[in-house]
Fold these 3 entries.
Entry 1:
Amino acid sequence: MNKGSVLQALGQVSTEEAGKVFREYLRGATREMLAGVMTEEVRRLCGEAYHPNEEGRYYRAGSAEGYAYVESRREDIVRPRVRRREGDDATQEVTLESYAAAQDASE
């Protein structure tokens, strides 16, 4: 739902329905913002997409199902995965700070 369709919908519904439309728009915008923040954190750790730093400590490792709290509601999301090289071919999953923050229901 884009800004124009939200404004149009808000003008065509009751006050109660307008609140629902507005909250739905905010949830979508929050999810988009979270995806952008996680993408930027992955870029900061791993470098640009499709140009891996072979000697870097971190690397992209696909994605996984996860969850985040949006307006105190748990919502399923797809989160990026990052791994850290530990030496001797050992690796460890890295928890993105942005993902950890999104899982905190108290925020």
Note: The chain is about 45% helix and 30% strand.
Entry 2:
Amino acid sequence: MPDAGWFSPCDEAAATCRVLCLPGLGAGAAVFTGLARRAPAGAAVRGVRVPGRESRIGQPPIHDFAELTERLTGAVAALPPAPTILLGHCLGGLVQFEVARALRRRGHDLREVWVIGHPGPGGAVKFPADDPLGVYQALVAPPPEILRSPGLLDLVLRGVRADLDVANSYTPASHVPLDRPVRLFAGSDDPQLPGGDLTGWAGHAGAGLEVHPYRGDHRFAGAEPAVLALLRRLPS
């Protein structure tokens, strides 16, 4: 039986599409609360709750990419059938891409994969695991209240350390291009996509890679308006 509690609750009765959103480095499903609130009625936006954070704070964090992908794939596959978009920010985008490949190998259908701010399987980098705060500050620019609260910062860095281990343990589980469209949201000032470099996606998006540029940095808040605009254009 797959793990319980992976997804934030949402009434899907009126939805024509399910959007499962995996947060980025050290973040939790709460970052997608605003997106879920403003999304059109036809889009059921649900955040992915990673072990070790938020409502799952008492569970051990996952430190291995293959384990995270396998467990999340099982959780997605166990949901009732529905047209589904997998969305991921930062490292979450790479995880969702590999979840999509795993689901397709199992014969499950998907609509698309939406990735925010990740250079792709061929552009995945190794991070210095001994400097989680430095990586977090460079990519996320955390609000001052987190940095001023030792207890809150320790809690956040627990997730960051786990995510760095996940990122550093990544090797592609398959080299078969994904047969579903990939949409990449690329910020103008995102250090993960310098100069809009897309070479890391070459040969992986078999059904096409469509880039959605936006003005902003690596943080999800900058990409949210572009994501919301695309959600509103989905067929009802």
Note: The chain has a mean pLDDT of 92.
Entry 3:
Amino acid sequence: MEVKHRAARSLVHRLASAPVRSGAFGEAAAEIRRLSKDDPEMRSPLAESGAVPLLGSALLEFDSSAAEAQENASAALLNLSISAREAVMSTPGILDALAAALRLPCPSTAQNAAATVYSLLSVDEYRPIIGSKRSVIAALLDLFRGLGVTPTRSIKDALKAIFLLALYPLNRATLVEMGAVPPLFALVVKDGRRGVVEDATAVISQVAGCYESVEAFRRVAGVAILVELVDAATGASGRARENAAAALLNLVMSGGDKAVGDIMESEGAESLVRELAEGVGGEVSARGKSKAADLLRVLQRSRGSHLVHGLQEDTETSTDSAPQSLLFSSSSYSNSSFHSSIN
């Protein structure tokens, strides 16, 4: 192992001794990229020897003459983040470097940066930290705002990162505030690339888990889009249908009666959810059926409650202003939705 440490120190010394725009820096970055990919045991020695801040510094500003070096630096950081996440995350300024890399014009560099953020977010403790870095969130969102321009792989890596961000409940309102909802639904409606709809709906199902999502979904007709996705006749995949049901359920759990009312206003919502709960259309997992069944119970309870309330008003036997809450205890549900569904 000492041999690997010596090799790592030598490479990092070469990196530190060369200007970013120089060929020597590019060669050292390429070598670090290659070694960190081919030999996982080199990742920790490279990180411990100080490679991370040097690689990160190469990403802060675009330089057309150093585009290849920046691509190699971003790929090397991604490789290091797989085995040395703590060393990467603890490097001062690394999130600023990744935010800058996400906006670089080289698609592969931006993709590597998105994948690195995703890798770091696999650690639960890092989610609130990265979630407080608005420049990172904004750059990730911009990646999938470029419909038809951003490569599929970059969009999927950005969606994966946003998904993990949204697993931390306090990040959801931030995502809504920063405008995540419109581009997410735009991906569902307008982007026909394989897997993108499934990944976008998985993210939507998480973002739905905050009260702020109710109004945000209303502004883009989100509930109607999700109800339509539940319908097997639209040709949506089983995974997309399940994610749509999970999103509606999480919206109900976070938005209360307002969200229930929005769903009930969508024509045929209850019958479509029932079909999903019964497995109509095939490709429906047991978990998907369970989510749909939970949502169906809420909708049925809503319909029954409103019917009783209406009868009370007609017969003037009650002057109560509103029925009690239609929701079950939040402990009955899990706000997480289909973490394993993102590829």
Note: The chain has 20 helices and no strands.
